[in-house]
Amino acid sequence: MLFDPRYLLFVGPAFLLAIWAGMRVRSAFAKGSMVALMRNVRGADVARTVLNAAGLHDVAIEEIPGTLTDHYDPRQKVLRLSSPVFHGSSAAAAGVAAHEAGHALQHASGYAPVLVRNGLLPLAALGGQLALPMFFIGLFAAYSGLAGLSVLMTAGIVLFGAVVLFHVVTLPVEVNASRRALAVLAETGILVRSEEIDAAKDVLTAAALTYLAAALQALLTFIYLLSRRR
Questions:
Q1: Strand ranges of the sheet holding 78-82, from the earlier edge strand across to the other edge
Q2: How far lies 181's CA from each of 58, 116, 118, 127, 158, in Å?
Q3: Is the dihedral of CA 48, 114, 119, 10 positive or negative?
Q4: 3-state secondary structure 15-48
Q5: Does the annotation mark 100 as catalytic?
Q6: pTM of the full predicted structure?
Q7: Per residue in 146-203, pLDDT tens?
Q8: What pLDDT sits at residue 95?
Q9: CB–CB of 207/100 below 8 Å?
Q10: Which of 23, 42, 47, 164 is within CB 3.0–4.6 Å of 101 for a Cys-Cys bond?
Q11: DSSP string over the chain
């Protein structure tokens, strides 16, 4: 049987968790955006402060469209902040900006998990595109008596294993970036009131849940593929 309802049992809970985590981070960001900073500094200025404190004066900061599209590009040494974060002077904007700056600090210090993640990225990207199609083509071939093509199932599993490893390694990378962010925000006095600190923590905690959900979804999918291979 090609369609297996067990797939929904394996991946369904993680999929629902991912939906909830996405809603949670958007809600936390919206609430945190309403908590104005007493020091009235923009997210772009927060990121610059964090980078300069670490001696990373050569890392540029750019504004990009969208919401929660923030990221650090280690190849070009550019920190890209979405418009609400770049211009925002809220606890949410400060938390996100400092978190992304934390990734720049990780790269500069040679933080091992981020180096491992970067090494896995090309294979994980390939696996994300090809692993499942290869697996199910191989599964169809096995059911059709085309034993020679069933090797695609194994190849798909191996490729998807890289996807799982990437998501698992991403967890400590993101948690560490958040810890660095909160530490610098406290040291520099950017966050003054307890309300600001709590709002920034809430946004970063919610964001971490999205990575946890992605890792869990990948892991359960991998286990399911192994169960179908037997």
A1: 60-64, 78-82, 71-73
A2: 19, 21, 21, 31, 35
A3: negative
A4: HHHHHHHHHHHHHHHHHHCCCECCCCCCHHHHHH
A5: yes
A6: 0.88
A7: 766 778 999 999 999 999 999 999 999 999 999 998 898 988 899 999 999 999 999 9
A8: 95
A9: no
A10: 47
A11: --S-THHHHHHHHHHHHHHHHHHHHHHHHHHHTTSB-TT---HHHHHHHHHHHTT-TT-EEEEESSSS--EEETTTTEEEEEHHHHH--BHHHHHHHHHHHHHHHHHHHT-HHHHHHHHHHHHHHHHHHHHHHHHHHHHHHHHTT-GGGGHHHHHHHHHHHHHHHHHHHHHHHHHHHHHHHHHHHHHTT---SHHHHHHHHHHHHHHHHHHHHHHHHHHHHHHHHHHHH-
Q: Which amino acid is at 162?
A: A
Tokens of 53: 């404190």
The catalytic position among 62, 100, 174, 196 is: 100
The set of residues, in sequence order, having a beta carbon less than 8 Å from that of 125 and lying 6+ positions away, is none
